[in-house]
């Protein structure tokens, strides 16, 4: 092991610099006077955050799920952040890549149209008014779509998207008056505990970083293996079954002659998103789901997804999957047939990310039983942006009951960053 060269102390140490970790840091810095260290084995947004399309949607979410209230709260806080940016005289499109595109969940058959109607009924019962568009109505909004006469879509005009990488850069501007420090490209190697069992410090490849109040693990799909390695000598049993689920995103830069006005997703995306993992899926990288998701970002780039695959922690580009994603997009957008993916490849970027998958479909948020001062904020597969919550002003909520060794029931109107901030500050 490399010689430890630095020893520093902070109130809270956060492991992971994706959108969850950065937002938790921002929550503490805006809502309290605590000091923060944030650690990452690479750079900010090197994982799933930097490889996503930036959707902050409700149209594809289930109002009956335990994540629904959290998603609504998070969406509202993103809106409040946008309002705050505008009040500062800044353009949220430039600062955050924010676009109020609305969301379109599209179907191509009468059966899928019936499914969309049922989804709209559920949304309406939950107080969210979305519209069912016929194929003709849909073509007025998105002329590039070709769904056939049975085509239809559920439309939620208030949904929006952001640029995840740009937003991460923005929220790093904490203005924390010396209360914040970054330790990037420093893999965590160990937890240091006191004689009473409390977590005292995090050891990295270069530093020992002590904590007064808490260590928060927000390392995405690496949180499970990282936490298990950290507690293996602590006589603590921890069941944190996070698996990496690999995804590709095709970015066609400055794409001319093709316009999308909204964010779009095929109805089948929902089934692929919620597909359960078993031993076969978890070990067979050939079991791949591909569904259409498309939007255009602030720079006019066409973003095409998406794929889902259990392939361990390898994140190499698979050209066969990229080709399948392109072919899937052609089924929905006939105009793309005028272009060859091979010809476009010189202007393409392929992003690969590993989503932190939890079979329960619920993230792990809360303290680890038996390890005082250790907290988890992970397992938000593909939903880190829409479940994270960005504070605009200090918002402190009363603490709620913990369930098991960590929270997986989210029937509350707190966002992840608020929840962690609330728990740590209430306990300490």
UniProtKB/TrEMBL annotation:
Pfam families: DAO. The chain crosses the membrane at residues 12-29. One of its GO terms (cellular component) is cytoplasm. Keywords: Membrane, Oxidoreductase, Transmembrane, Transmembrane helix. InterPro entries: FAD-dep_OxRdtase (IPR006076), FAD/NAD-bd_sf (IPR036188). Residues 11-387 form the FAD dependent oxidoreductase domain. SUPFAM superfamilies: FAD/NAD(P)-binding domain. GO terms for molecular function: oxidoreductase activity. Required for the assembly of the mitochondrial membrane respiratory chain NADH dehydrogenase (Complex I). Involved in mid-late stages of complex I assembly. This is FAD-dependent oxidoreductase domain-containing protein 1. It comes from Lithospermum erythrorhizon (Purple gromwell).
């Amino acid at each position: 092991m490399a010689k430890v060269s630095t020893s520093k102390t902070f109130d809270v140490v956060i492991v992971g610099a994706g959108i969850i970790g950065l937002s938790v840091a921002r929550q503490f810095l805006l809502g309290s006077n605590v000091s923060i260290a944030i650690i990452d084995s690479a750079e900010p947004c090197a994982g799933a955050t930097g490889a996503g399309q930036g959707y902050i949607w409700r149209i594809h979410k289930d109002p009956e799920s335990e994540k629904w209230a959290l998603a609504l709260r998070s969406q509202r806080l993103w809106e409040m952040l946008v309002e705050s940016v505008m009040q500062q005289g800044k353009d949220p499109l430039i600062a955050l890549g924010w676009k109020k595109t609305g969301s379109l969940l599209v179907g191509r058959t009468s059966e899928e149209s019936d499914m969309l109607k049922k989804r709209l009924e559920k949304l309406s019962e939950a107080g969210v008014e979305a519209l069912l568009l016929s194929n003709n109505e849909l073509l007025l909004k998105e002329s590039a779509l070709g769904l056939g006469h049975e085509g239809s879509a559920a439309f939620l005009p208030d949904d929006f998207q952001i640029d995840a990488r740009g937003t991460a850069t923005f929220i790093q501007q904490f203005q924390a008056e010396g209360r914040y420090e970054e330790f990037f490209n420093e893999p965590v190697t160990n937890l240091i505990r006191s004689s009473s069992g409390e977590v005292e410090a995090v050891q990295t490849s270069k530093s020992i970083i002590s904590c007064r109040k808490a260590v928060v693990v927000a390392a995405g799909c690496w949180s499970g293996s990282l936490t298990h390695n950290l507690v293996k000598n602590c006589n603590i049993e921890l069941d944190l079954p996070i698996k990496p689920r690999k995804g590709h995103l095709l970015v066609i830069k400055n794409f001319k002659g093709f316009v999308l006005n909204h964010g779009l997703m095929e109805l089948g995306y929902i089934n692929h998103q919620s597909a359960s993992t078993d031993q076969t899926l978890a070990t067979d990288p050939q079991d791949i789901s591909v569904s259409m998701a498309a939007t255009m970002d602030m720079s006019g780039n066409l973003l095409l997804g998406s794929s889902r695959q259990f392939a361990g922690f390898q994140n190499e580009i698979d050209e066969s999957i990229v080709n399948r994603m392109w072919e899937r997009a052609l089924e929905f957008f006939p105009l793309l047939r005028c272009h060859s993916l091979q010809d476009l490849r010189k202007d393409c970027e392929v992003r690969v990310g590993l989503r932190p998958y939890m079979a329960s479909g619920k993230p792990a948020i809360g303290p680890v039983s038996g390890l005082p001062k250790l907290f988890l904020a992970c397992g938000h597969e593909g939903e880190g942006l829409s479940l994270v919550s960005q504070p605009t002003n200090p918002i402190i909520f009363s603490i709620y009951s913990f369930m098991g060794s960590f929270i997986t029931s989210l029937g509350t109107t707190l966002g992840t960053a608020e929840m962690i901030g609330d728990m740590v500050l209430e306990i300490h």
